[in-house]
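dumping this here so i dont lose it
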């Protein structure tokens, strides 16, 4: 393997088959601060921004911020922020060098530098991919005011730990300086993600306004409520975790080392509500759909793609399938996914012009992509945070319609079973969940009581009249899984084990 590193100095010497930034990176000014620079951001938003920069828009460079780990910064800074985006399809792989990330900051190391970037008048958009759990919601969906990091940020507004703390403090400083607020663009898989973050941040600001540490400061909650735009968005691209084998293969193809290339599929989608008072890139020129209301697109993606992904992951893990394509190729799981879609589709708005037949056909092709090797364990992470919008919401609406969510509730049961299988049939730390400690503390209980306790911990269907029906359905599935594994649970739904697709 070569010892040279991908960088501004080496990028022009790459093979002609590799696409490199088609613009002068030195001429680019920062306009976006992104919180949560992980593989998904680098495969999705950063790639779209790269397209805009190549088209001549010079004011939208990205300053990346990691709220926790320095790993991405440590990988990208020696490379001048450059990295390889490997687009892998069944017909081969195309390599693109992305140059839109200008610099990287690690929040715990230097909160002041992050706040300086957020308060810079050139920053007009702040995007976020911090994962569902980082929004620090209580079981009822409100801000978890008792979370230690929220408590810290209220007492120490100048050195925050959370996204809420950084957004609030920087918006307060911008207002004090007479700088217009930036637009906050959430790109995480939350229902009505912009409105959800807006509500959570107003809740944080109200606590901050009432805190002794804010004595004498102008109230912030009203400013955020009235003056800051929070457009909702829907994002979609499958991004498997990068392996050492991926790094080695990319290094050979480039002729230089890339410490953290990103693997992805050819498909990408971004739907955004077009509310940007401070301006935005011309994303629509590169396939982004700008709309007035993102909710129909969001619901379709959450319930059909993400819901199926969770089902494929948990049923696949319990069936011994390590990747999505292998799980989806299991005829019984394949039929289960079709039935899951059949349950979820009627819960989508019928007047929004959604083509669910074309969408699920496209999903089936994407799930079958053998080149991605998307690990089921990666998708399985943080199920307690993901299942409410992916599965539980659809199940509630089916019950309201007088229908039984048999297949939707099996996904919840499979999540519980997969959590319990770690350290037994699955490796101890095969995937993680914020509720791991609480789940482990439940001890032995009758199945119905145990499922009810899990619902309580996760806040599934909290306060809903449909909750007991969901618990009973999940408990019945969980009994089948305990007695005869996923095969028995599927058989109880009329899906026998098959050797080939019918």
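and the seq i came up w/
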């Amino acid at each position: 393997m070569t010892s040279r590193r991908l960088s501004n100095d080496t990028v022009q010497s790459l093979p002609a088959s590799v696409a490199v930034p088609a613009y002068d990176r030195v001429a680019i000014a920062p306009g976006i601060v992104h919180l949560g620079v992980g593989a998904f951001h680098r495969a999705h938003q950063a790639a779209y921004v790269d397209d805009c920069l190549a088209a001549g828009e010079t004011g939208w460079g990205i300053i990346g911020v990691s709220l926790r780990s320095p790993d991405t910064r440590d990988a990208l800074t020696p490379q001048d922020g450059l990295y390889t985006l490997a687009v892998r399809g069944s017909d081969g792989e195309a390599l693109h060098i992305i140059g839109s990330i200008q610099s990287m900051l690690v929040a715990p190391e230097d909160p002041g530098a992050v706040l300086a970037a957020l308060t810079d008048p050139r920053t007009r958009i702040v995007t976020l991919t911090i994962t569902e759990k980082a929004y620090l919601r209580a079981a009822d969906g409100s801000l978890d005011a008792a979370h230690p990091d929220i408590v810290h940020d209220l007492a120490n507004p100048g050195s925050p730990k959370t996204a809420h703390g950084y957004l609030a403090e920087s918006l307060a400083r911008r207002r004090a300086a007479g700088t217009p607020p930036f637009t906050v663009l959430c790109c995480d898989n939350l229902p009505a993600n912009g409105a959800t973050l807006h509500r959570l941040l107003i809740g944080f600001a109200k606590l901050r306004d009432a805190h002794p540490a804010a004595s004498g400061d102008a109230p912030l909650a009203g400013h955020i409520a009235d003056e800051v735009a929070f457009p909702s968005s829907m994002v979609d691209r499958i991004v498997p975790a990068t392996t050492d084998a991926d790094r080695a293969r990319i290094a050979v193809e480039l002729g230089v080392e890339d410490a953290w290339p990103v693997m992805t599929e050819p498909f990408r989608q971004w739907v955004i509500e077009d509310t940007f008072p401070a301006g935005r890139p011309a994303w629509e020129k590169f396939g982004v759909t700008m709309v007035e209301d993102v909710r129909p697109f969001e619901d379709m993606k959450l319930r059909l793609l993400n819901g199926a992904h969770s089902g494929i992951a948990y049923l696949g893990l319990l069936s011994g399938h390590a990747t999505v394509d292998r799980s989806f190729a299991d005829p019984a799981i394949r039929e289960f996914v079709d039935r899951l879609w059949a349950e979820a589709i009627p819960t989508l708005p019928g007047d929004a012009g959604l083509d669910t037949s074309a969408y699920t056909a496209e999903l089936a092709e994407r799930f079958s992509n053998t080149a991605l090797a998307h690990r089921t364990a990666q998708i399985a992470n943080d199920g307690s945070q993901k299942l409410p919008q992916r599965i539980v919401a659809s199940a509630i609406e089916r019950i309201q319609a007088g229908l039984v969510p048999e297949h939707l509730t099996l996904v919840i049961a499979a999540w519980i079973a997969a959590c319990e299988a770690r350290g037994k049939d699955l490796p101890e730390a095969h995937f993680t969940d914020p509720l791991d400690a609480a789940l482990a503390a439940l001890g032995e209980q009758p199945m119905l009581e145990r499922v009810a306790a899990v619902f309580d911990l996760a806040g599934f269907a909290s306060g809903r009249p449909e909750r007991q029906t969901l618990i009973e359905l999940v408990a019945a599935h969980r009994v089948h899984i305990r007695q005869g594994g996923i095969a028995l649970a599927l058989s109880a739904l009329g899906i026998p084990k098959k050797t080939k697709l019918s």
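The two ends are 46 Å apart (CA to CA).
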